[in-house]
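Input record (one chain):
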Amino acid sequence: MKKIRAAITGVHGYVPEYILTNEELSSMVDTNDEWIRSRTGIKERRIAKDKNQATSDLAVKAVNGLLEKTNTRAFEVDLVIVATVTGDMQFPDTANIIRDKVGITNGFGFDINAACSGFIFTLSTAAKFIESGQYKKVILIGAEKMSSIIDYEDRNTCIIFGDGAAAVMLEPTYEEVGIMDEFLRSDGYGRNFLNMEAGGSLNPSSHETIDAKQHYVYQEGRQVFKFAVSGMQEAVSEIMLKNKLMTSDVNWLVPHQANLRIIQATAQNANLPMEKVMLNIERYGNTTAATIPLCLWEYENQLKKGDKIILVAFGGGFTWGSILLTWAY
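The corresponding structure, as predicted from the sequence alone:
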């Protein structure tokens, strides 16, 4: 009996209209365009300025576009999984809020929090549901309103992050396409270097935590950079080694858009030319769990059935990993 594989059969993204440029940021904190671009590769990022616009609203735009593009009716969807660290609220989960807003009444949904590796971990999880044979149409979403947890007086973090969402449809196939292999890792030691200290059971919200700005992203940039480079290089090397891939076998590398220097180091270590690397960091910044699917959305017209693609990410926690997929359409 042939193996059931989970194949991406559609992708759609959404970014807010408002563009926060480096020039505007330089009027808010002590920075400038050259300083930001030389360290991150970021020129601008999209921001959801409407205070009533939550992460679920960004995701709904992506999901509705995906349903239309794949000619899928909402009730046909079996499962919705959302990768996010900026859910609308502690509970209910953002997946079920999205399901309600879109009108997906069948099946169930849940969230996954793996920071910037969220889409990789979610794709692995969603693939297992498809491979079980029980689920036929699974939507997975990477969505973030990072501006809601960023201190715009902290130049170490406010220059990096943006808002956005993208969704992919997973469906079963017996062809040799879809999710082929994975390499996933995590190490809780990294919680010391990239986190949001308050809002959980350890430090519940209080006047003290708000005054101390503990509800914003905290990052030790040098430590995160060092671990991100080694983690992403390991993930790409391992997935290529496991599958006996040569550089010439790989059509595309889709890295998490954290920092251009990290991306360049990862590609160089794998001997992959930058022409094979998907990039949108210059225009969107780091949209955390949304960066990889946003890349797939923007490059969709350049993809061909049978293309071998490596997705790779590194995130807070620490979390990191890679997925090898063969493009299905």
